[in-house]
Amino acid sequence: MTILGCIADDFTGATDLAGRLYNSGLSVSLRIGTPEGNPHSTTTQAVEIIALKCRSIAPNQAIQQALHALKWLQDTGAERFFWKYCSTFDSTDKGNIGVVSCALMDALGAEQTIYCPTFPENGRTVFMGHLFVHHQLLSDSPMKHHPITPMTNSNLQQVLQPQLAHGQTGLVSLPEIHQGEEVICQKLIDLQANGKNHVIVDGVSHSDLQTIAKVCWHMPLMTGGSVIAVPLSQTYQKQGILPTTNVAKKQIPTLGTGKMVLSGSCSAMKQTQVMEYTKTSVSYQIDPIQLAKNGVQDIKHWLSSQDIDADKIIYATADAQAVAHAQSVLGHAAAELIETAMGTLARYALDLGIRQFVIAGGETAGAVTKALDIKQMSISEEISHGVPWTFCHSGDTPIAIALKSGNFGTTHFFNRSFEVLNDILQQR
Ligand code: ADP
Question: Ligand 1 centroid vs 426 CA: distance in angstroms?
Fold first, then answer.
């Protein structure tokens, strides 16, 4: 029986969430898109996560997708729900964080929800409603240059308010959080009485998150980054709502040794990781303007001429100046063009016999999993916090795939990925 139903706005975020809950000892199933048909026709787990790709689509489509996912999750029996988005609050004035929250609250009859992007180990903290990325305000961080959702305001109440179809934002500040559960509870009640039902909660540490989870666990809908979901599920466990049983032993498929990395992320960390990996691997850098002119043929040709077992990477990752140049020539089509190419190349790699994939970039991962027609993923060990290896099928072909959002992991992430997978495969 499913207890907690989660909806994630992108695929890397969904695997991050799945990895964390798996590590908490919970049975977790991750579905790519809302499954067709009734959940009763399939085995469901205590935690069901539906990964959508709705971060930057039209708000009405995001609402439609989220409500469809919610309905499926409700049909599993779930009564608690979690709306997961990026810890850097990736969104625009049009949405989709706030618009989806409003739709889910309406559907659930939820009177109030919280927004908790705090992610201490990745340096995302919230103070007085302002989001920080390590030592910088969000709006001073490299996120201000993001190709799709440039974050130029760090005040989350101001970011969220225009996204709300109805209701108002409120804040529970860090000093209030530090005064403990009773004060927070009262603050939430006061905010609610003043029509402030979309509440940003400050938080800088795991202990803050634990306090927040203890106060808010009864809300039918919680929203935030992946990290708050861990103390939240632990609170459900303490309340006896979620079982504390361990996950079933997973099946590890036989995979060949062919591997590749596809990186469409342009985050600052990703540029460092790609540059590091290219020192020890063969690499192909996609130039979006050339791609628009010539298509993927040259890249396919390059790929087919590489040793299948060799460390290899195809990347569009570039610095802010290069991204701005591509966008000035191609407009917003640049992003879509690259995503489509990444999907096509992943399929082609599969045809060449490659079975081990690391995909960097949330949108990129969405495009690749769609192209590979992956429907459900079984979660395995983490490469680094928030990035688990997963086993799944593309059609009938078993593959291993790790989906990584741009900013995760350390400099040697890609080398580390394949070392971890090797260790997992040895366990067979
Ligand atoms: P992240 O997780 O770092 O945000 P995403 O894949 O979600 O990464 O977003 C990066 C977006 O930028 C994708 O849509 C990708 O296609 C696009 N992109 C990647 N490289 C370039 C480039 N060189 N020029 C323009 N856009 C790019």
Answer: 34
